[in-house]
Amino acid sequence: MKIVVVGKGGREHALLRALSESPEKPELYCFPGSSAIFQIASPVDADGLESLVAWMAANAIDLCVAGEESYLVKGEGLANLCEKAGIPCWGPHLQSAQLEASKEFAKLFLERHGIPTAKASACETLEKTVAAIGGKFPTVLKFDGLAAGKGVAVCMVEQEATDFLDEVFVQKRFGPGRVLVEDFLTGPEVSIFAAIVDDRYLIFTPARDYKRIGEGDAGANTGGMGAVASRKLIPAELLAEIEKNIVAPTVAGLRKDGLPYRGFLYFGLMLTPEGPKVIEYNCRFGDPECQAVMPLVKGDLAGFCLAGAKGELKPELVSFDEGWSVCVVLASAGYPESSHSGDRISGLDSVGDARVYHAGTLLNADGVWETNGGRVLAVVAGGENRHAAVTAAHAAADGVEFDGMQRRRDIGILNFTD
Ligand code: AMP
Ligand code: GLY
After folding, report:
1. Distance from the CA of 152 to the center of ligand 1, in angstroms?
2. 106 CB near ligand 1 (under 6 Å)
3. Per-residue pLDDT tens digits for 124-133
4. How far apart are CA 42 and CA 31, in angstroms?
5. For ligand 1, is residue 187 a contact (CB within 6 Å)?
6. I need a surface site. Which of 5, 124, 282, 325 has the fewest CB within 10 A?
């Protein structure tokens, strides 16, 4: 079996590792990939979406796996082009990926199908947005488009809203687009991942990520400084409620609206006092949640994704470890505002049984790994219980070093009471 994974980060490194462990030992390719990914997957010789699909067709690729979201909504859409070329694709069509690409599309979808979410209104000008806020704080402002994780402002006070609206409407930092003014919700967050195949689905291991740069959830929002995953992260009754009120109606809604979906769908939820509510959909696995979840997935992930991309959900091909997994992200100096490249990384051989996924590294001409991005590495370890996984992951991360390294020591610890 020949598989191409699209993307270049830690999530794709983790997906590729999991695919490589499938019993059939698939032949793996990646686009665009990274130095670390090239050690387990061969690079595809392409320079964009069209040439990628042409290459896959010419090279008899059996399956394309969309790791990152951007290609799903570029041009005609990765999945749409794959379909035309007769290549099974694990990742949704352009029309369906609007659930992630447009917050307004997602909000209308949620409302139309009666799925619990925060109330919101869409505004096209600065004046209308200010009127919709109505002087009520806290409030949440969301730019209606892909903004690399920077398009959401949780505004506790008016000045924060003023600054964000200046970026959107005056500096036009994210390009043209409307803003959603959304009710402020409270409660712990949880990430739920469903593998959807048309009208059927399978829920993978729930996870939680740590989005802020600093310990105690202080400081700026990042792509994620770590994650914890376990079947036991939330009680079984709560997961059943989430399935009944959120996952099942979403899958039914996609069918009703004629939105084809074969791939992972990520439900970003807040467990509010009134019950779980959707704060966002992402049409892919989470990053860094994927790095925490994948080591818990057993069986034949490659066969599962291939069958799914062809329209058959085969839950019997995978199972989920009952234990816990903790992922500690190591970020470079300056992240998240900037990043620092060229810092030599030491200790990569010291991690023992832990897994190291590369997000932003480069193998330099001397054969030494160096930093090459904001989030650099994810160190992941498991255990029968959360404490064991936390201890193992942090101990493994202790061995890895580079200049200016940023790391949170409360990953897997903060927001737990036991
Ligand atoms: P998003 O990019 O939609 O995941 O939002 C980023 C973060 O903003 C989320 O992980 C939440 O922590 C926070 N957030 C988003 N929507 C809300 C909301 N309605 N109320 C409170 N916090 C929110
Ligand atoms: N961990 C958040 C995301 O993948 O969007």
Report:
1. 7
2. no
3. 999 999 999 9
4. 9
5. no
6. 124
